[in-house]
Each structure stands twice: as C-alpha cells, then as structure tokens.
Design a protein that fits this description.
about 525 residues; mainly beta; 9 helices; about 15% helix
C-alpha cells in the first residue's frame, strides 16, 4: 500500500471513531437535567451585546391605567359607581364618538358614559361594618380553627367555635293621635344580639331588648298628659334558642348510613313568621322539627316543618294557649307554594279552641310577582265563630335609565298593590311580635289585621312604591290606602323614609294620616329615629 493510500485510510478511520464518540457524548449530555433560564424577549431593534444585557423587560416599563378606569372597564362598577355627575375624563374614544355603535353626536351610550364621574362611590379605604367577633372572624379567609372538643363518638364532628355580637341603639321622637288618644314623647331603644356557633349547623342564640320589653318598642318619656317616663326596661332576653342537625350531632355514634339524618331542630323561644306574617308573626316558646329536600315530583325543594308551642302564644288576651301544627313549602316549576295547618288549644276553656288552614301561591312573571293567599279559621264554638282572610299581592320591579325620577337620583323602584277581604270573626293565630310604637305609624290595614281581631267584614286596597336613591343608601316609600271597615270609608296616606348617613348610622322617618267621617278611624302622627349599628 502506497503512503498516500495508507494516509487516507488512517484519516477516515480516525474521523469515523471520533464522530461516534462525539455523538454518544452529545446524547448523554442531553439526557442530563439542566436548568432552564428565563430569558426576556428580544427587543425589536438590534442592540449591541452590552446594551442588550442591561435592558429591562417590556413589562417593567408598562404604564398601568388609573384605578378608576380599570374598575369602570373591567369590574366592580356596582360598588364604585359615581356619586356626583361630572365629566368623565377617561374613555376618550367614547367621548369623541369613535366607537362602532355610535351613529350620531347625541347617542345615548356616549351621553351616558360622559356623565360619569371620576370619583369613586366608595373610597378605597372603606371597610364594611363588621360585628364584634370572638375566636374566629365573622367572614374570615384564613384556615378553620378546630377545637379539641367534638360531638360524642370517636368520629364526631369537631367544633368550630365562633362568637358574634351585634346590635343597635336608637333615639326617637314620636307625636301620634289615634281617635281621642294622643301620645307625644322622646324615647330610646336598644337591641343586643349574641350568637355562639359551635359548628356549621349548631348554634345558640340570644337577643335582648333591655329598653323595650314585650315588643313595646322602647322606653318613652311622655310629654303630654299623663306626663312622665314609661320604663319598659328588662334584663330578661326576648329570644333564646338552640338549633342543630341530627347528622351533625349523631354522626360519631355509628348511625345507619341509609337512615334519614338531615333533620333540623330548634328549641327555645324563637320568632315564627308564616304567610307573610298574616297568619302568624310572634315569638313562641316550644320546638320545631324540619326535613328538607323531600322527593315528591313534580314538586322540588319540598320542606316539611312540625311545630309545637306551649308558651307565649298570644291567641287570647286573658288566657294562655298551646299551638301545634305543620307547615309545608315547595317549588313548582319556578313558583312557590306554602300550606299550613294549625290547632290552637285554650288552656282554660275548650270551647275557644280553633283550627287554621292556609294556602299561598307565589308566581314570578318577569319583573312581576303575584301572590294569592287564603286563610281559614273554624271550630270556635263560644267565640266569634269562623272567619276568613283573602289577600292578593303584586309588585313590579323596575330599573330606571331615564325620566323625571332618574333625574332626581332614583335608580330602582318596587311598586306594589295589595288587596284584601276579611270576614267577621277572623283572627290571626298570634300577632304579638310587633313594635307597638312603630306599628302605630303603619297605614297598611293588613298590619293591624295580623295583630288584632276583626270585628266585622272589611275590605281594602294598598298602593305604594319603594324608591331607591343613591344606590340604595336612601329609600322613600309613599303609600295610599282605602279601607271599608263596617261599611265606613277610610282613606289613608303614609310615608316612610330611610337614609344611610354613615356605614354605622341611618335616619328613619315615618308619617301617617287617615281621613274618615268616624273619629274612631282617624289617625295622624310622625316618627323620627336615629339609629347607630354596632
């Protein structure tokens, strides 16, 4: 073999061996884990090597829009709507009519946007009023604090103790005349609400009215004759009850997993409200058992309640009574149905025992709501006998975008019209849970029917509207009433006004005036109250 041929052969062999070795090393190196560095995107223009290393990423030089504009475009507008109307300095494309939907220089969209203010409705430092809490915050976002205590059993649910205390204090003035009786005075009212929650379904609740026992409405210094201080103070709580759920209480006791366990119970002195308060609105001492989510097609969300009260049933003025009954509520194709049967037993005279049956049907038709209610009473042999009450309710919710009311700051209205017919002898089960000072200023005759006996056939109609101003911080409720008790005509005008002065303080005004040829039906008065929440 010649020298050139040998040299060429040697060079090819060495080159092939070196290539195989280099490829193997490259594969092994690629299989090793390496750290991936985040390299900022390259700028559009070529920069020298030294300048490229010192340049900042584009996101560091980005200009963030003002908070007002960000909230206006992307969320939070229901909380941060403007309070005053000043030219809005953002959205130049809208103000200059450059958006696609604008066809003229006077379009509604542009005029609406340009009237917004750059001032936020709520300041950035605003914090919603929170009640006094212990152990765990009222609406905390941290982890759940479990206690070492738990319900009986090895696997009983642990407690999550949380205490919440809240209440209100009100100063008020009253000037009222009903027939030949007049009451003028200055008073105050205090509410204290204490709640101790052990788990998500078990709690103990106590409510005090230290200045207004037995729904009196507060203690009052009367300025007219007889002048003096009407002391309604007490340290006895008005409401106190405990509640729980069977599954939560007995889960650790090894119950049958197929047994019905979602049964809720309440025992103590608790408020009860049936059929919009027309049948029952009172604080009762007894117990309630309820079972939710019964499966009964075509009904859904069927809830069955059994209640028994052995004290504080104000069905009779001069004697005590027992109350037992059942209440059913369910949804049917988007509508709401309620049905009740109750038996009231007089503990002194059996001839005054009564039976009640009630049926309510509520239907939702767009922004309209209609409710028909029929209540029946029978079985009283020694009293006024049987009686009935029929009520037809309707209301219409409207969000305003223009018009005279909109220019006055009214953005939402709820207009209602209620008609009723009551026969002689109708009496609600128990209607003592009323603030007597403030309910005297109610022009609605249905309020009086739900707390006192009806002496004769009567019928009436109530027409009113609730006007919300300044994003529901202010509410005005004018009412007009016509009633015909015992064949006499009674016309009435009522006005209620609520104004939120601060996150903790609000103003309440009430006024009533009725017109009738009979002096017994004439009423007029005014009420002013300033309340502070804590």
């Amino acid at each position: 073999m010649t020298l050139p041929a040998w040299f060429c052969r040697f060079f090819l062999q060495k080159t092939l061996i070196f290539g195989v070795f280099w490829g193997t090393a490259s594969i092994q190196f690629a299989a090793e884990p390496v750290e991936i560095l985040s390299i900022p995107p390259q700028p559009v223009e070529e920069l020298p090597f030294s300048e490229e290393l010192t340049s900042e990423p584009p996101w560091k030089s980005m200009v963030v829009p003002p908070l007002e504009e960000e909230l206006y475009n992307h969320g939070g507008t229901h909380l941060y709507r403007p309070f005053e109307c000043h030219p809005f300095e953002y959205h130049e494309s809208v103000r200059n009519h450059s958006h696609p939907s604008c066809k003229s220089n006077t379009c509604d969209i542009c005029s609406d946007h340009s009237s917004h203010s750059k001032c936020l409705r709520l300041p950035e430092w605003f914090k919603e009023q929170q009640p006094f809490t212990g152990k765990v915050p009222f609406l905390g976002s941290g982890p759940i604090c479990l206690s070492e205590l738990h319900w009986p059993g090895k696997y009983g649910f642990h407690w999550e103790p949380r205490f919440v205390g809240s209440g209100s204090y009100q100063l008020f003035g009253l000037a009222f005349e009903d027939g030949d009786q007049r009451t003028d005075g200055i008073g105050h009212q205090l509410l204290v609400d204490l709640d101790l929650q052990l788990t998500g379904t078990e709690r103990a609740h106590v409510q005090f009215r230290p200045l207004g026992k037995e729904n009196s409405g507060g203690s009052l210094y009367q300025l007219n004759d007889p002048e003096g201080y009407n002391d309604n103070s007490t340290l006895i709580p008005d409401r106190y009850w405990i509640e729980g759920e069977l599954f939560s209480l007995a889960k650790g006791l090894g119950m049958d997993p197929f047994a019905v366990r979602d049964i809720n119970g309440v025992i103590g002195k608790f408020p009860m409200f049936l059929h919009n308060g027309y049948l029952l609105n009172d604080d009762l001492t007894g117990l309630i058992l309820s079972k939710n989510n019964w499966y009964a097609p075509p009904l859904s969300n069927l809830n069955a309640q059994f209640f028994y009260a052995f004290d504080d049933v104000d069905a009779y003025q001069d004697s005590s009574a027992d109350l037992v009954g059942t209440h059913l509520s369910a949804d049917y194709q988007g509508d709401f149905i309620e049905a009740t049967y109750a038996y009231v037993s007089n503990q002194d005279r059996g001839g005054l025992d009564r039976q009640y049956a009630a049926l309510s049907y509520t239907k939702f038709v767009g922004r309209w709501t209609f409710a028909g209610r029929g209540m029946f009473q029978w079985g009283e042999r020694q009293g006024n006998g049987a009686g009935q009450l029929f009520v037809l309710e309707s209301n219409f919710t409207q969000v305003l975008t223009c018009g005279c009311l909109y220019q006055l700051g009214v953005k939402k209205t709820v207009t209602y019209c209620n008609g009723f017919v009551a026969t002689e002898g109708w009496d609600s089960i128990s209607g003592g849970n009323f603030d007597r000072l403030r309910s005297a200023l109610e022009v609605n005759p249905l309020i009086r029917l739900s707390r006192q006996r009806n002496p004769d056939d009567t019928a009436g109609v109530v027409l009113g509207s609730q006007l919300f101003r300044h994003h529901k911080d202010e509410s005005i409720i004018p009412e007009f009433v016509y009633e015909s008790p015992q064949g006499d005509s009674v016309f009435g005008l009522g006005l209620r006004y609520f104004r939120k002065l601060s996150p903790q303080c609000f103003l309440e005004l009430r006024g009533v005036k009725t017109f009738s040829e009979e002096t017994d039906y004439r009423r007029e008065g005014a009420f002013t109250g300033l309340s502070y929440l804590f």
